[in-house]
Task: inverse folding
């Protein structure tokens, strides 16, 4: 979630902050900060269980979120191999990597827009 604070200029809007939350939705499945963070962590750690643990959730809950999103969005997100002698691993699919990049770019654009809008409100300027 992004936060934009107004600049101090002595106006009545001093100290007010604008907040926003971005999510993508398809067939009732939401892709937002939580799933973004989970997939990013899996990409970095190579492990669903470690990523889940780091977010304070169970492996089962993490895998459930991933599988539900895969079903409803119709795209694979994670490829995994269960442990064993050689050890298990998990990695993101190209579709998941593209989704993370798209979400990140959208978040940056919304942040820029909110910053611009906040500046107009705090200075009393009108228009888009």
Result:
């Amino acid at each position: 979630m992004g936060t934009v604070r107004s600049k101090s200029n002595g106006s009545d809007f001093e100290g007010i902050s604008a907040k926003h939350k971005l999510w993508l939705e398809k067939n009732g499945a939401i892709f937002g900060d939580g799933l973004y963070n989970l997939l990013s962590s899996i990409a970095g750690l190579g492990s669903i269980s470690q990523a889940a643990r780091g977010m304070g959730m169970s492996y089962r809950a993490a895998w459930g979120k991933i599988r539900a999103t895969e079903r409803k969005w119709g795209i694979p997100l994670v490829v995994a191999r269960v442990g064993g002698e050689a050890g298990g691993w998990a990695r993101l699919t190209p579709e998941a990597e593209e989704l993370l990049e798209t979400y990140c770019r959208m978040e940056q654009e919304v942040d820029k827009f909110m910053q611009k809008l906040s500046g107009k409100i705090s200075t009393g300027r009108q228009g888009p």
